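Folding problem:
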Amino acid sequence: MNDEEYWAEVARVPAFAEGVRLSTLKSTRDFFANVQPSEPTPPINWGRHLLAASLVTLDAPETAQSGALRIVQGCLQDPDAVVAHKEAAEYLLLRLGNGRAAKLARDKQLTPDVDDPSAASPLSLDLIRRTLELSVDGGDHRVPVNHFQRQFWSAAEQTRWTSVSAPTSAGKSHIVRLWLTTQIAARERYRAVYLVPTRALIDEVSRELEIDLDGKATVTTMPWDARDDEASHEVFVLTQERLHILLRKWPDLEFDMIFVDEAQKLNDGTRGVLLQRTLDEVARRGEPKIIFASPLTSNPELLVEGVRGSAKALIGETVTVNQTLIHVNQLHTTQWDMVAHVDGEPISIGEFELPARATTLRKRLSLVAVALGSAHSGNVVYTNGPGEAETVAGQICDALSSSGWVPSKATLEVVDLIEKTIHPQYLLATYLKQGVAFHYGNMPLLVREAVERLFRDGDVRYLVCTSTLLEGVNLPCQNLFVRAPRKGNNNKMSTSDFWNLAGRAGRWGVEFQGNIICVDTKVDGDWLEVPTRRARHPMARATDAVSHDYDALHHYIAADTPVATARETPLLQALFGILASARRQGLELEELPWFEPSMAQSTALSDLVDEKLAGLTVSPHLLQLHAGISALSIQRLHDHFHASGDRDRFELPPPESSHSVDAFRQAIAICNKFLGANFGDHEGRQTALAILFVDWMKGRPLALLISNRLRYLKRKGKKFTLPSEIRSVLTDVEQYARFQGPLFLACYADVLDEAIPATDQPDSPRDIAMMMELGVSRVTEVSMMSLGLSRTTVVALSEYITRDDLSPEQALDWIASRDISAYDLPALIVAEVTKVVRRRAGIA
């Protein structure tokens, strides 16, 4: 009997299977007290079920570990279980390496009052041995870890390339930070990159690293930081866009380690191609360790196939917290049915009543969330876009209107921040007063983080979210409500994305289980695939399209990379860019570890790319700098500028210039025409974006950007609604000012500089990419942001600072020498400034 057959046999043991079913039934009914069961919960023989659970070991598959955990935690939560059974349950938790769950049980006084749990068990020597096995060398002491974390530690130490896949709650981020801390402590010099998919994660990860490193290394988050002297120990926390800029600015920069968080983002279209391209380059600089981490993927080995050097792929089966999948469906007008699913087996829980009739589809989600979550905190409701998030949050508020919720002081401070920095009538401020919030990626970072903090602290009981939750934001919850989930352009959410989202349910060490409540699972067409059990799914890379869409790519290149095609299918432009980049560096395409086409296709592509590059006059440096845009498109823009010979006609002036809006409007149109940008095809839209870009780079507050947009629309006689237009401005800032703008307008400016060089070199050349991504234009403001301050706070402080050229150290001195609390600033801005100053000063 092999391992797979053995564990399948364990799962079929009657005492084990029955224990899983009864534990799920009882714990779910106890949690949702308002659900009426059709029949009583049967009595549970814990001794019998715990004995079956003891068959499960650390190397058991995820389903077996999850079942054992359900039995053990069910026993601990049962007030009728005898002391001996609770002692045995605690022992089994510790034997499985789940010390945090055991501590939670002790904190909740669910276990016997024994100082040393191992002393209560005749198997104490086994427990001591297991405890030693599940620990790693933290330098000056041993650090307890779970089984997956121990496996990761060994793999990271022994191989150059490591790819790991594990559930969201397995503790990947924690063990990576711990491992990184020990590496830094053991080396005289060490430089690492921690790659994350979003700017929001940059701030979250950098703060956690600064706490863990405790001054042992410099944490850098921006490639534009002034680097007066090189730190001996340095960790860069960056997106792939920022890493690309860093590599261009410092051609000789090498690293000791690259950690790629949310590595499944290698399949994220053009951004996935850029991520692959930066990894290709950084891997060629020296011999860095490269570690990939992804959630619940079945093929982590994909990312280390064909690489040079030792490699290991690891699938972590460790289960730290149970996640109960629940289907709820309508029986009658307001009567609904609840069924739990454990490893595909349905378990009838009971029936419940909605507080009102669900007369619209969105109300079905919001009213179910109120019916099942109003007695609990930690409710996350997933919606399919910012507009829907605001609507559902409003419906939840209305259904809870008689609950007598009193907002906390911390909540009112967030309300004040929102009203002053976004708009007095922004719906978020109104809903927060009732303990409800919405959350989406385009919201300002300081506001979004404040909302997340309120949710974690229990000051927000319902948080209505969009696909931001899929981007790795560390926002665990107790209950997750989902109905007909979509992602992107109204595409039904894939099963892998659903389980990545579902991984947020269940806070390890905070509660014993999380609940994933799926609404309307019996409605035809609402779900791509109705989930019944958690499963791993294969991941892919965006660069795989080179072979999958070979004919389309070959035709695109052979046709001289038409702009219209690039606009319709941006991935083709990005793929041409990565191939052209490799050929410019003298690499054979077969040398790229991810390259899969046949030899004949490879030869044909190489010859075709070489042919197209041969006739270009633009410098290789410029093409490499903007490899995400077709080299042929860049050449066409270069020729356009050069033929004109009139630099002043195309120059992008400083944002404070009186004619900057006209200049940027013209540049936007040219980027559309020559580079394949998609800034809108009519003058009104291009003008609105030009105004936004200029105001954004000036460092104007977001509230002013919104009011300027509203005035522009009124002046043009256009109809609009306030909530929709606020969302529109937030989207334009994130998607255009901070992403599309830097990509295309920075290329525009660099091509102009090469085609028609300036006769007078400016004292400090303007960095369009930096100004657009950060939303500031002065060195002083960039320095303050490099300290860890949000743009919202930097813009507020810049009103009081006249000097343009303060370094980070000088900016910190300026802030520390002022009584910021005396300024007319929202309390949360003052708090953020105080926190940064204290952290930089080494004060806890």
The chain has a mean pLDDT of 91. The first helix runs from residue 3 to 12. The longest strand covers residues 322-330. The radius of gyration is 28 Å.
